[in-house]
Protein: TonB-dependent receptor
Organism: Natronogracilivirga saccharolytica
Amino acid sequence: MNPRNFLLTALLFTVFSLPSAVNAQQEGGTTSMLPDIDPQDIEIRGEFDVTFPGLSRQPILGFSPRQPIYRVDPDRMPFLESDDEIVTSVPISQLEPALRPDHHFFSFSERRNLFARAGYGTYQSPEVSIIAEAPVRENEHISLDFNHRSSAGDRDFSSFGDFNTDLQWMRQDGPTRWALGVNGASSFNYSALPGPADNNEDEVLPDPSRISNTTFGMHGKWQHLEHAYRGWQSRFDLTHFTGKGTTGDDEKSFNETNYNLYLNHFRDGRHQEQVFGFDLRAAGSLYDTIDDETQYWLTNAAGARYRHQFGYAHQVEAWLRFYQLYDPVNEFDLFLYPDIFYRFEGTGRVQASLRLRGFVENPGLQKLHAENRFMIQSDNELQHERGLQIHLNAGFDLLTDTRVFSGLDYRQYYNKGYYLRSQDPANPFYSYQFAEEAIHVEWYSGLTHRIPELRTKATFELGFNFTSMDEEVVPSGYIPYVPLVRGSAQIMSQPLSWLNLSTWLDFSGKRKTAAEDTEADGFFQLGMRSDIRLHERVGVYFKSLNILDQDYEVWHRYQEQPFQFYGGITLHL
């Protein structure tokens, strides 16, 4: 399909959805989908950094990582929260193909000092998750987040092991909050024979390949809020990442030391619902390639912010950021990029938004390895990815308990990274390459439906991707491993107070690789889970993954696991 026709069709559909969304707000209000929580607590929680343990990162279109500002009672002391919410029941569907399809669950549950889940699955697959918190003294706590999952595998598919833990100290002193922590992680991925090389169907690798890596880091946060519209926020992260890839007797190692610094200040203006602010960011990495060559990259940025609420329904936020970049290929560059966001919020849960921004990204080796567990960076230096994004989104209540939404996301890359599998049978890993220009357009639509009397909620979403890349660099002409069609569905039900049932289906269509005549097959992933509370403090759970027992590959030539069944216990103390 011609990219201009694709873009025009999707744009018209989304734009014409906006008047329907505005008209829908004239109809009766709807029942809130939020859990039964004190509204003031919800606002105060929004002022802090809250993360849900164990959740895999997923791209959320239109989501802005900057925290919102809420008007709250400045004299009200919020209860002290850890950075990790107690997790229980709501599924998060993998909208992109998962590394090992799994779903995690969380809810706004009762305050606990310990939440633990331990289970065992087919193919010798233990899994453990522990979230613990203990008071040190008044307004001072320590917390622990521990997660482990592994599988033995066999000669037909890959085996793996993942472990991560985070220990954190937190203190609340009036309007000021501190947090310090240390974290560590390790993983290994042992592949089955990945089969013949792409350019030689008769040559099979003699030995399996294995990749292992470890990470150690420390992090800290400081926050001072004079009131809801004035305050300071800062954080730092320092991590050291090492890895090793082995095929037969050939061993390749790599490492990276990464830092991130962030400082944000915001204050109220003369008019109501008006906020000014600025932020400073610095990130960098010192890394060694497998050829023992040391390189580094830097990303420094300074931004100014203006936010204004016009009445109840309209909000505008604008950032202007100045970037100073360095990487070994492009050396020093200077850029000035805007980030403009408009949101319409109707009284009947009607919402429409528009975002226009220039972006700069450099994930570093650690994040690339987390995304593709069979990647080894060779002698290619990391570069900054940058480009322009336009995002449109509209959603409104079609019926009392049914909400529909649609969106269009357009990205023009001026330097785009992609994964390329080696053609050398002695080195069957992926590396991260770069092309100067690429386009990625996605149009998505979906709906959510709620059945209050059955305490059931269902969500469905379908997306279509169009990508384009320089054919002189990538012969296929597509951004590799982006599904042409993707979809997801999930249903959560709590028919009884002691029983939670969830099911989900993720679909990934065919994905083009870098080769002109090679593509990865699409697949469906169906999963189910039940959580049963036997006692106030003890429960059991059962989980099934890949129920359709499909032979599928997330990364070309690496077979993933077939049907798996897990069972275990949960503790709430």
